[in-house]
Amino acid sequence: MSDLFWPGDERAGDLVTAPAWLAAMARVEQAWLDALARAGVAPASAVLTGLVGPEELTAVASAAEDAGNPVPALVALWRERAVGPGAPWVHRGLTSQDVIDTSLVLLLRDAVDRIRAEQRNQVAALAALAHAHRGTLIAGRTLTQHAVPTTFGLKAAGWLTGVLDAAEALDRVALPAQFGGAAGTLSAAVELARRRGHADPVAAVSGAAADAAATLGLRPARPWHTTRTTFTAIGDALAAGTDAWGRIATDVATLSRPEVGELAEPAAPGRGGSSTMPHKRNPVLSVLIRRAALTAPALASTLHLAAALAGDERPDGAWHAEWPTVRDLARRAVVAASHASELLRGLEVDAGRMRATARAAWPLLTAERGSMAAFAGLPGGEPSEDDYLGIADTVITGTLARAYAYLAAGR
Predict the structure, then answer these.
(1) Where are the domains of the chain?
(2) C-alpha–C-alpha distance, residues 107 and 103, integer Å
(3) Residues 263, 256: contact at Cβ < 8 Å?
(4) What CA–CA distance (Å, rounded) separates 272 from 288?
(5) Residue 11 gets which letter from DSSP?
(6) How far, CA to CA in Å, does 346 sit from each of 15, 122, 246?
(7) pLDDT at residue number 379
(8) Which residues, 6+ apart, have CB-to-CB distance to 76 below 8 Å?
(9) Handedness of CA 103, 108, 109, 111 (dihedral sign)
(10) What pLDDT was estimated at residue 70?
(11) Cβ–Cβ contacts within 10 Å for residue 92, how many?
């Protein structure tokens, strides 16, 4: 998949695409039908895989307008095309929201898995940078101006902290299934179980819901039709990732300016060029990462707004607004994660330029020390490069320990 409006979109492959969503909805319906059959609620199951293919997406999407979502059109096709006594039982006891919510969670799980893999690579790359440059002197800058001496290792450790925080936020995200029926009571499924002779129809249906969730590899959960914390939490975790990568990209773009020249993006044939200026080496990876960081918070906020307006037992429009928002946020986060990994793998560090810039600005960078000495009434002396770095090395050591523990845990 590619998108002229979002260069690099192909890095996300088929994640959270219309064909992937179609396949995920079929998986949800299949898991539910199989669970009903195993519980003795349905007389038999039926094979749904492949009955509706990607070539029918246009027709399904067109038909979705009549119901406001694609599930009724899909159910009609599955019931028509499935073979055997289980065919009429497709979707029995469910509602469209069950299928859409659970299938979106499946799509998000795949995107989260990709991002987790990228974050592990980033943690390893950043830990190597922090370790290699823990003594590399660089001018600290605040509000765009020289501040005090620091090290590039400490800057890399700060980047690393942001990535670790985002990775841990993603690890905390819950991925629950949604099986609630028309209004979160599974009343239709319980009634079917009762009429099929179950002595305890509630237990039979509750067991089937747990069974279907397990089949899909999702966490069993009580119905959450209008409690949208599943999607707001995932959205927040994805935005935390783009925040962390955006902060890195902002620093790289700034420090790669020709007049600074302390960092450079990895070189690649044809990358960073200009249509008219042959001398240009634009920090394209940083630019594209910043693009994602600038747009992700608004997408996450849309999920929060939808959650706040999720009224009754099914939202009237707020739920529908989530679908494209989830798609865009997940795909853009995956692309940004890939860009960030590439940036960090090949980041070029000019330690000599860093040190030269810091030494040239040494009187300004050490002005704070003089003011502290004056305040304390003690001789200031001329600070060396090693005795005005405060706790920098201690912070690097602690951050590296956290990173190594994260990598060792194999998350």
Answers:
(1) 9-409
(2) 6
(3) yes
(4) 11
(5) G
(6) 26, 11, 17
(7) 64
(8) none
(9) positive
(10) 97
(11) 18
d(CA 232, CA 295): 16
Instruction: Please give the positions annotated as active site.
Output: 274, 314
Q: Check if the beta carbon of residue 87 is closer than 8 Å to that of residue 38.
A: no
Question: And the tokens for 274?
Answer: 């200009």
* Residue in this structure with the two tokens 């747990």, named with its chain if needed: 210
Q: How far is residue 88's CA from residue 112's CA, in Å, rounded to a whole number?
A: 35
Closest CA to 245 of 363, 309, 332, 310: 332
Mean pLDDT along residues 287-300: 98
pLDDT digits (tens, 9 = 90+) for 107-135: 999 999 999 999 999 999 999 999 999 99
User: Given pLDDT bands bounded at 50, 70 and 90, which one contains residue 372?
Assistant: confident
The two three-digit tokens of residue 402, written as one number = 């956290």
User: Looking at this protein, which amino acid is placed at residue 79?
Assistant: R
Closest CA to 141 of 359, 365, 349: 365
Predicted local distance difference test score (pLDDT) of residue 277:
56
**Domain 9-409, what fold?**
Fumarase C; Chain A, domain 2 (1.20.200)
Q: Tell me the three-class secondary structure of the chain, residue by residue.
A: CCCCCCCCHHHHCCCCCHHHHHHHHHHHHHHHHHHHHHCCCCCCCCCCCCCCCHHHHHHHHHHHHHHCCCHHHHHHHHHHHCCCCCHHHCCCCCCHHHHHHHHHHHHHHHHHHHHHHHHHHHHHHHHHHHHHCCCCEEEEEECCEEEEEEEHHHHHHHHHHHHHHHHHHHHCCCCECCCCCCCCCCHHHHHHHHHCCCCCHHHHHHHHHHHHHHHHCCECCCCCCCCCHHHHHHHHHHHHHHHHHHHHHHHHHHHCCCCCCCEECCCCCCCCCCCCCCCCCCCHHHHHHHHHHHHHHHHHHHHHHHHHCCCCCCCCCHHHHHHHHHHHHHHHHHHHHHHHHHHHHCCEECHHHHHHHHHHCHHHHCHHHHHHHHHHCCCCCCCCCCCCCCCHHHHHHHHHHHHHHHHHHCC
Helix ranges (DSSP H) in 228-365:
229-255, 284-308, 318-345, 351-360, 362-365
Beta strands (DSSP E) in 133-271 are 137-142, 145-151, 263-264
Structure tokens at 63: 């038909």
Q: What size, in residues, is the chain? A: 411
pLDDT at 104 over 60: yes
